[in-house]
Amino acid sequence: MLNITRGPTSKKRLTMEWKYPVFKPAKAEPSKSGNATVDAMIREALTREAAYEILSEDDRRPLLIMRECDTCKGSDDALLSRSLANDTTILLSHWFRCVKLPLHVLEEDHPFRNVFNEKNPPHVILARWDGSDPVVFAGDQSQGVLWKSMYKVLAREYDDDPKKVIRQLQKIYAQYDRIDGLKETLRDRIEAEEERRGPRSNKLPKLRKQLAKLDKERDELIAKEEGIRNLALREVDPK
Amino acid sequence: MGAGRRSGRGSRVASTVIARALLLILALGSPAIAQSKQDKLPEDPYLKGDAAGMQAAGYTAFGSFPWAGEIMTGSIDEVIGDERIIWLETEHFRLGMGLEEKKLPSDPKDRRLIQADLKELKQRIPKVKTKPRRMDPWLLAHLYAFRLERIYAEFVEALAIEGDEFLSEEALRKGLSMSGRQHVLIFEKQSDLARYFARFTEVRRDQPSRWYFEDGSFLMATSAESFDQALQNDTALHCNIVFNQVHNLLDVYRGYFWDFPQWFENGMAQYFMRKVSKDWPNISLAEGQDPEIWKDPNWESKVRKRIGFEHYPRAEELMSITDPADMDFIAYMMSWSRVDFLMREESYPVGRFIYRMKDCPRPEGMMPKKLLLEHQAAMLREVLNMDYAGFDAAWSSWVKKKYKK
Hints:
The complex is a heterodimer.
Chain A: H1 8-13, E1 18-19, E2 31-33, E3 36-38, H2 48-56, E4 63-67, H3 87-93, E5 97-101, E6 124-127, E7 135-137, H4 143-157, H5 162-197, H6 204-229
Parallel strand pairs in A: 1-5, 4-5
Antiparallel strand pairs in A: 2-3, 4-6, 6-7
Helix pairs in contact in A: 3-4, 3-5, 5-6
Chain B: E1 2-4, H1 14-29, E2 34-35, H2 51-56, E3 59-62, E4 66-68, E5 71-72, H3 73-80, E6 86-90, E7 93-98, E8 102-103, H4 108-122, E9 134-135, H5 137-158, H6 169-174, E10 182-187, H7 190-200, E11 209-212, E12 218-223, H8 226-229, H9 234-252, H10 262-276, E13 283-285, H11 299-308, H12 315-318, H13 329-344, H14 350-357, H15 369-384, H16 388-402
Parallel strand pairs in B: 1-13, 2-3, 7-10, 10-12
Antiparallel strand pairs in B: 3-6, 4-5, 6-7, 8-9, 11-12
Helix pairs in contact in B: 5-9, 9-10, 10-13, 14-15
């Protein structure tokens, strides 16, 4: 396996963009307890439709829902591999609205309980924004199986071909790492020079100019990345 | 690592909420320790839920109690999941501990730090082992409760603050004995931190953050998973908490109406944090701000070299920064060093400086930067007997004597 150490730009951009929806219930009448009033919540499971409305908000991207569990050693183990590079999974996930639901979501009165209506509730669901056409996973799926399903859902939901875009993005990320490596070397040299010869060292202007050039190159790549990531969603049938 | 900025000042409506919450605390907490009858804590192997033992260990409540405003700890359990958080209240803090069991770190330096703290904790809780192989959730809860009270004690002692001086004038007028405990949430999962903020505040955050509630309560919330699991390291987490608590203590002291200029708040926070370890610098980030990567923890040497070349931000420039977005690595380092100088030289009454800074006249609405900086300059003269040039001269001369290159 090729082990790539990502630079700070890649690391920052190669993260799962999780949403953590919560339901803010209507308040009950305050109940008296001793000398004070206490905040009492009404808790009940929402309908499946209402739950998905909260999960999606105004976002019509397909959903990637992950249910947390106590047996997963890391937070995203049901989705990400601990032994293989996860860049492709994370890049694909950016075209989904990624929602993480808590450990106790399967409690009967949890507001989002009805997101899971299967007999054996899955750990990962890929679905339309309203929960329709779900593809479910137990959490032990291979990376290949997951990608195949993610690509299939994306091909259904978007006008453009994500496979081609993924290849372009991977090249951009390699460029980010190259730039960050060069920047780190330059910053170390600038700092060492300032401390050894002071701010008036005649080497500093050239080093700073090189650093500024790299910053500009990186910013241009970011703009390019954001441009090609912007896939067009297919028209959504109002339901 | 850092924490997000908090919201602005709370409204006057909050004062009645404080009164109701305090009535509950006073009714339950004196003289017996408070515990809600309907709650069932996981078994604590160290104190076994024994009220007398808990009280001797410095706890005033555990289980379910009012958290902040109208929020009870039970409300948070509903969102996070039952029996995932250990709730403890001490004289000055309310702590929600959600860490999972941890192995002791392999780094000998980190192990020694933990073992030294456990040795002190054992004096309050005899069943604590000083060299355990693992730290279970209850041990972590007791350890961090102990560390929080220690932060408070060290802060108050270092600045020669009397307990009553912490109160705002509003609280003094009302005759309250305590204007509100600090709230600390230490989650295992970043998702729990995010859900807390989504449910109980007006913002969406999933990074360690400080927060100010409208009832005057202060909060810091963090998670072991934050910063790409960096806070799984106990020393890193300890530093994160010290850094943020010092910020909160400075803000709560005599009431929160504005933020100190960045050099002072961050300098103080770094000063106390570096007493724990120099290896885990923390910074305060504005929303959306990108931190630089800092590698070398040997700030004394870096500052000393720059002083040698007269290459440092002058006091007037550094002390005028009020926005964390305007702080860079050099500013953080220099701010720490300025505070290091003031705190280590006994002739500078830093506690008095803080006291007098809080006397700054308060206009309606946001504090104008100009007014705050003028007051700061006046207090620099009145309390520390320096102007900006004098501060530069005294500090740089001290650095040349005290810091090695």
